[in-house]
Design brief:
alpha/beta, 12 strands
Length: 304
């Protein structure tokens, strides 16, 4: 069994394997979940991927899909590929994933792409706590300094990992063409977040008049209507902003966002939709109505 072979590898604590055959489409799908020792080395992480890729399978499985999830401490690694193909790139990614982790943070690495020529890496660095965003930004700055070769990946900085849910944590991420998860496609080119973007994200999570979550999406090149950023503010889970709280937040945030050359789509939302929208430094799309609460700020900050 695959589990037995993986459990015998150095650094592995446990492994479980799931295998399914879909009769209608006649396809096979497998998933292996592996737990590594906290002190497992990069070489040991890579050897798990190589061992899975080396499994001998009957010819009828060729072209079907397998997934691998590896956990070490609070870090996670995911990859998927077609049965029978070379997995050297995924093994190298697992090796690097184990190298970049830092105490007090969470690194989530996703090597996405069943076919090797379409593969890309999406990497998330999380603080593990909404109250300590500086842990994530400090880890991200260390990665930028120590691993410049990793710049050509999609990077997200967050307080907790995205898998914990949507609109219940803060993040700095690439801009997306579609926001209906999970079907989203990156608009930004792969790159490290800039120091200015990291500073902005930290600013939003430090010394604010009322608690909130912030999602900053970066467009590179600029997105529709020339926007370079989306900044969305959400209330804590189970809460809603009062009109006074929304106004207080907007009056603190908008002067900060009104920097020369910046075009920012700024929104404050409840769980039921937007309550405040201002297009800072640019012009709203013609089909978007200006909300009554936003009118005075739109006149002040929009440039049409």
């Amino acid at each position: 069994m695959i589990e037995t072979a993986i459990r015998a590898l150095p650094g592995v604590v446990d492994a479980s394997h799931w295998f399914d055959y879909e009769g209608k489409s006649r396809t096979y799908h497998s998933r292996l979940d592996v737990r590594l020792e906290d002190g497992a080395t990069p070489d040991e992480a890579a050897s798990v991927v190589r061992a899975i890729g080396a499994q001998q399978l009957p010819p009828r499985y060729q072209g079907d899909q397998t997934e691998v999830n590896i956990d070490r401490m609070t870090d996670s690694y995911y990859a998927n590929w077609r049965f029978g193909r070379d997995v050297s790139r995924e093994a190298n990614s697992a090796h690097t994933w184990a190298r970049v982790s830092a105490p007090g943070t969470q690194v989530g690495w996703r090597s996405r792409g069943i076919d090797v020529d379409k593969m890309n890496n999406a990497i998330g660095v999380a603080a593990g706590s909404e109250a300590e965003p500086h842990r994530a930004t400090a880890a991200m700055r260390r990665i930028i300094q120590d691993f410049p070769e990793l710049a050509s990946n999609y990077w997200t900085v967050s307080t907790v990992h995205e898998e914990s849910g949507f609109k219940n944590h803060s993040s700095l991420e690439p801009g997306w063409l579609h926001t209906d998860r999970p079907f989203r496609f990156p608009y930004s080119r792969p790159r490290f977040p800039s120091n200015g973007e990291l500073e902005m994200w930290e600013w939003f999570l430090t010394d604010q008049p009322t608690p909130f979550f912030v999602e900053i999406s970066v467009y590179d090149p600029p997105g529709k209507a020339g926007r370079t950023l989306d900044v969305a503010i959400y209330p804590p889970v189970g809460k809603q902003f009062t009109a006074a709280q929304a106004t207080q937040l907007a009056e603190r945030h908008l002067p900060y966002l009104a920097q020369p050359g910046a075009v920012v789509d700024y929104t404050i939302e409840t769980r039921n939709g937007p309550v405040f929208e201002v297009f800072v430094g640019g012009c709203q799309e013609f089909w978007r109505d200006v909300l009554p609460e936003s009118e005075a700020y739109a006149r002040q900050y929009e440039r049409c």
